Amino acid sequence: MDSILVNDMARAAHLLGMALGFGVALIADLMAARAVLRPLDDREIEHLEIFHRVVSMGLVLLWGSGLTLLYLRTGFALDEMSPKLMAKLCVVALLTLNAVAIGRIGLPTFRNYQSWRFGDIPLTFRLQLSALATISGACWVSALSLGVFSQLRTLDWDALSLYLGVIYLLALVAALFAATISPAISGFAKVRSERPRLFSALPKLKF
């Protein structure tokens, strides 16, 4: 088969994998964030599990197409790989590990605490869920940045490491903040949801 055709097909599959993974992961994160205001129901948990499988398919496309492109460009010779390519491999590897952790830790935790608001879940599990979500977002953003911004091609490994390190440090800070502030938000949402029932339980005054 013509190498140019293979390259074009691999690039198309790579873009599809990125769109599929990033887009569906974003939808899943937004759905999971509803748990801050109210418990998730069975249907929403099932949707999260379906979204996770779709994101996994996107990752498979990214790995398959990415390794194909890597072989066409470098023949897997390490001295031919730029710092940007090495950074992309590290990011996608971390993204894959995080996806495995979501499947084995994140989704079962949501199942176990399905009737709970996020802020009422024990702190340890809130930290785990928050870190899984923010690391996922950081991975997708950094992967997209490495693929889109041509300025990153000229950076050496030290500069790229610093750039990625800042992104993941901010992700962990965001996870800590979310896990810490969520009980107050969930408590406020709980009070608001119970207020109509409180007033309806009061005896009606007759004049």
Explain the overall architecture.
This protein is mostly helical and 207 residues long. It has one domain. It is 79% helix and 0% strand. It has five helices and no strands. The mean pLDDT is 89.
End-to-end Cα distance, whole Å, is 89 Å
Query: How is the main sheet built?
Result: none
Number of helices: 5
Order of helices and strands: HHHHH
- List unreliable stretches of 5+ residues: none
Strand content: under 5%
Helix/sheet category: mainly alpha
Approximate helicity band: over 70%
**How many structural domains?**
1
Radius of gyration: 22 Å
- Mean pLDDT comes to 89
Q: What is the number of E strands?
A: 0
Topology:
Layout: H1 3-32, H2 42-74, H3 83-112, H4 123-148, H5 157-201
Helix pairs in contact: 1-2, 1-4, 2-3, 3-4, 4-5
Supply the key terms.
5 helices; 79% helix; 0% strand
Summarize this entry quickly:
It is built from five helices and no strands.
